[in-house]
Design brief:
CATH topology of the largest domain: Alpha-D-Glucose-1,6-Bisphosphate, Chain A, domain 3
Number of strands: 21
Strand order of the largest sheet: 1-5-4-2-3-6
CATH class of the largest domain: Alpha Beta
Largest sheet: 6 strands, mixed
Number of helices: 16
CATH superfamily of the largest domain: Alpha-D-Glucose-1,6-Bisphosphate, subunit A, domain 3
Number of domains: 3
Helix content: 25-40%
Strand content: 15-25%
């Protein structure tokens, strides 16, 4: 059986173990077969990459294969945010795109994401077709087509380009950049050695607002951490802000499609609070209306805001292959998930950490509040909501036993709140009185089981998580 299986967004694996040049070229051949099968080969393919070890070389390997299949390929000439690469699929009118990135995964990994012609993550149907071609190629032993990049250029099949130029132009149409620049906000930015480096300083410098960027050099080791913008990985940013002199901290993950926010006191603003603040920004500060799409792991505050502002909330499985598809179906105002990934109408139906950061800044400007004040204002509207999660590494052979324990679990209460229901939309979720919930879900990108909860107090968060761990026997 193939080791190549796509998760919530693409295929990810350990570099040199399963993520090899041979397997990347196999995926590229499968993409080429998919495009030819669907009559899209003539429209071309965009190929981009992040700052991980060898990413530019893996991207070149993809281009060697796609061009050998006669597909005009637009190869990024530098690392770039995944949303910039996704947007360049639209500007080049290409049939799709490949991004070499493992997003927030540990530094030991790399990955292969496929994007649709609208810039969105591949749907489950497209993923199934790609995996079918991968399996067919492996079973048949068919040779992988390949030519050098020099030959591809000589045959006018390869174009190299800078994906940031038109992406930045697009961003300027989405938000009042000049208003943020004039506002005099003191921003600490942490791109975590990833592809978000330089974007906020470039967009916002030159007036009263100041941007100080840390961890801006390329470092494929990512300081030994997974480049995920959550509390445990943002110590340097948090300590910088606690030292005084900053109004907000903003961090993007390895491929800049996720956002982490730290308030003016050095406190991490949870991803669920950020989701609700972005919804509040669009609904109140900008007065826009439209459906909102959220993952099962995201905040019930969205439901409260939906009631307040008269908009419909849709709940989907985790992954933008589900959220992006629903956004397109209902022309949603925004979509998002617990991971810190958010997408917006008028852009691409895909996560964009840079745009989300600018929207948070614009909310600060429009409501004249710092982040802690924004959270307090949000709680005034929907009540206090607190969240945390625990990531449990999975040992080989333990997944089935965990599943069995969760299937048999029938708690009457958790954290002192009665259990009001159970669902298995994506994992095992126990709904509790007052809108609280506890969810167990196996990660689609790493060998982890995640345990999530959202409830009405920080103390109850820890109590529910502790009881959840006992319930699962971990």
């Amino acid at each position: 059986m193939s080791v190549i299986k796509f998760g919530t967004d693409g295929w990810r694996a350990a570099i040199a173990e399963d993520f090899t040049f041979a397997n990347v070229r196999l995926c590229a051949q499968a993409v080429s077969e998919y495009l030819k099968e669907n009559g899209d080969a003539s429209r071309g393919l965009v190929v981009g990459y992040d700052t991980r070890f060898g990413s530019e070389h893996f991207a070149a390997a993809v281009a060697e294969v796609s061009t050998a299949n006669g597909i005009r390929t637009y190869l990024c000439d530098r690392n770039a945010p995944t949303p910039a690469i996704s947007y360049s699929i639209l500007t080049n009118k290409a049939a799709g795109g490949v991004v070499i990135t493992a997003s927030h995964n540990p530094w030991t990994d790399n990955g292969f994401k496929y994007k649709l012609d609208i810039g969105a993550s591949a749907t489950p149907q497209v993923v199934a077709q790609l995996e079918r071609h991968i399996d067919s190629l492996e079973r048949s032993g068919s040779p992988i087509q390949r030519i050098s990049l020099d030959e591809a250029k000589s045959r006018d099949l390869l174009v190299t380009f800078d994906p940031s130029v038109l992406y930045i132009q697009k961003i300027r149409t989405l938000v009042d950049i000049d208003g943020i620049r004039r506002a005099g906000i003191r921003i600490a930015a942490d791109p975590m050695h990833g592809t978000g480096t330089g974007y906020l300083p470039l967009l916002l410098s030159g007036d009263r607002t100041q941007v100080y960027e840390i961890r801006s050099e390329r470092n494929p080791y990512f300081d030994g951490q997974g480049p995920e913008p959550i509390t445990k990985n943002l110590g340097e940013l948090i300590n910088l802000i606690k030292g005084g002199g900053y109004d907000v901290g903003l961090s993007t993950d390895g491929d800049a499609d996720r956002l982490g926010v730290v308030d003016e006191n050095g406190k991490f603003v949870s991803q669920l609070e950020v989701f609700a603040l972005l919804a509040l920004y669009l609904l109140e500060a900008r007065g826009e209306r439209g459906d909102i799409v959220k993952s099962v792991t995201s905040t019930s505050m969205a439901n409260g805001l939906g009631k307040l502002y008269g908009v419909r909330i849709h709940e989907e499985r985790v992954g933008f292959k589900y959220i992006g598809a629903k956004m397109m179906e209902v022309n949603a105002l925004m979509g998002g998930e617990e991971s810190g990934g958010f997408a917006f109408r008028g852009h691409i139906p895909e996560r964009d950490g840079v745009v989300a950061a600018l929207f948070i800044l614009d909310l600060m400007v429009k409501l004249n509040m710092k982040p802690s004040q924004l959270v307090a204002y949000l709680f005034e509207k929907v009540g206090p909501h607190y969240y945390d999660r625990v990531d449990v590494p999975l040992k080989p052979g333990t997944r089935e036993a965990l599943l069995q324990r969760l299937q048999e679990a029938q708690p009457s209460s958790l954290g002192g709140l009665p259990v009001t229901g159970v669902d298995t939309v994506d994992g095992f979720r126990f709904t509790l009185e007052n809108g609280s919930w506890l969810l167990f879900r196996f990660s689609g990108t790493e060998s982890l089981m995640r345990i999530y909860t959202e409830t009405d107090s920080p103390e109850r968060v820890q109590k529910i998580l502790s009881e959840g761990q006992k319930l699962a026997g971990v």
